[in-house]
Structures are given as structure tokens and as C-alpha cells.
Amino acid sequence: MPAHWAKGLTYLISLALASFVLFTVKCNPDDTIGDLKRMLSLLTGTRADKIRIQKGYIVYKDHVSLQDYEISHGSSLEMYYQ
Length: 82
Hints:
82 residues, alpha+beta, globular, Ubiquitin-like_dom, Hub1/Ubl5, ubl conjugation pathway, signal
């Protein structure tokens, strides 16, 4: 988990896998999609580079922060295995 979790604002983000499995992950606005994928990797046992995060047809890039994508508390995203 990122070291900066102890300070500031946190988000709870829900991720659905094939609309059956739901993960809720605690994140900070300045966490990147790559950070989110690493957290999901710990939960699922799947390598982070094999996880794809998207919403609709938009696939999110690893180096971009959650706030840059305007992902906020209560957002729902989709998680797929590549």
C-alpha cells in the first residue's frame, strides 16, 4: 500500500469483474492507476501487469493519477484480466 495513505483524503472505489465480483479499494487522489492495479494484485493474486482498469470504452493508463482521470470517492470502475 502506498506510504502516503496515513495523510489526507481517501477514496473508496468499487471495481467489478465480469459483474460478479466486487472489490472496494481505499485510495488517495494522487494514487495512480498503476498503484490501484498493484493493490488489486494483492487482493486477487494476479500480476498487476495482467490487470486492465477501464470504464466503458476508456482504458486507463498506469501512470495517470485518479484525480487526473476525475475518479473520486464512490466511483465505479471495471477490472479485466488480460
